[in-house]
Structures are given as structure tokens and as C-alpha cells.
Fumarylacetoacetate hydrolase (Sulfitobacter mediterraneus), 232 residues
Amino acid sequence: MPMYVINAPKQASLAVQGSSDRFPVRRIFCVGRNYEAHAREMGKDPTREAPFFFTKPADAAVDTPFTLPYPKLTEDLHHEIELVIALGKGGSNIAEADVMTHVWGAAVGLDMTRRDLQGEAKKMGRPWDWGKAFDNSAPISAIKPIADVPSVETGRIWLSVNGELRQDADLSDLIWSVRETVAILSRAMTLAPGDLIMTGTPAGVGAVVPGDVITGGVDGIGTLEVTIGDRA
């Protein structure tokens, strides 16, 4: 075993449904504007342009239920509910027909967003990192093994805040399917076991404040609950 000059970081991981074992997280890739209605609400053309990606650090992933401290530097924290794909096998230039053989499981997650910081970055032509890649910004449900998942192509995806429904769509509304998304991503870099892909959010994103309780889910895959805590 190698010796390190400082203590090695703890391996980021997520719970697995029906098991005490955990899923090690390597990287988190996120797809931007992958539902037509959400593209429109963000003021963008929903035509089927090539998908684009941004990332979050592995330790942004946290188990749910979770109390998320209201993050620093923002006055406009938004929720974005998403289907999450967990890879158990890596590769590059993966064919669409082979993608599901690389998938270990699926979950539901939140791409929490400091919308004011993201908006400022967009205006200045800067990266989105400060708006997207902050502490605890990816609360995710326990991962369900893919053999037990009925579908990653159809199924209701929804989110409520304090019992009020805000996001409600179907996975069939994705502009780029799971198979297409993973295949395209694998052309840009070699994917690896432990990589997560957050596949985009439907319309209805909005702000949350301390005390709010977010619930959401994807039919046949899982549900989550996140409470917004006091400021960090």
C-alpha cells in the first residue's frame, strides 16, 4: 500500500437499495438542458443540439434523507430533480446498443444550483462551477441495481416542495436518452466504474429557502427527501 504525505480523502459513496454495501463514486457528470420544457423556461431553444456537460465533485453526492445547509454565497438556491445513472463498467466509444451493459444501477438525485451565481457566470462567459459544484450539491437516493429497474426510458419523474408539486414529467421526455447520453459522453473521455451521470431536469425548477422540505422520485427507481437547513 502506498504511503501518502497527508491523510487520503475518504472515498465518496452512496447507499445501495437492499444492501449494506455501498457504491463508490468516482466522478459526477451532469447533462444540461435535456428536457424541452426546461430548455424553454431557461430561455433557450429546445432543438436537439448536441448535449453539453458539466461536473460536480464526487463528494458532492450525499445520501438521502438529508438536511442540506443553505449554501454560502447565494440568495437563490434552486432544486432540479434528475434520473441518475451509475456505471459499473467503464469504456470509451461505447455503442448505444451496449450502454446498458455498462450500467450498474439507477437512482433519483437533485442537482442543487446556486442560480444567481450560475446566471452571473453565464453573462460573463465563465464556467458554471461556482453555481453547480458546491458542498452537498448532489443529494441522491439509494442506488437500485439495474436488474431491478423497470425502465430508464419511461416513468414519471416528479418533485414537490412542502407538498406542492413543482416538477412533473416523464423520462420519455428526455431530449437525449440514457443510451445516447452515455454513448456521446464516452466519445469525449474514457468512462470508469463509479461514474455517475445526472441526466437533466424537467421544467418547474425554482427556489427553496431554509425550512423547506423537498420530496421527489422516479417511478420504479426511488424517492428522496431533502430538508433545507439554516445557512452554512
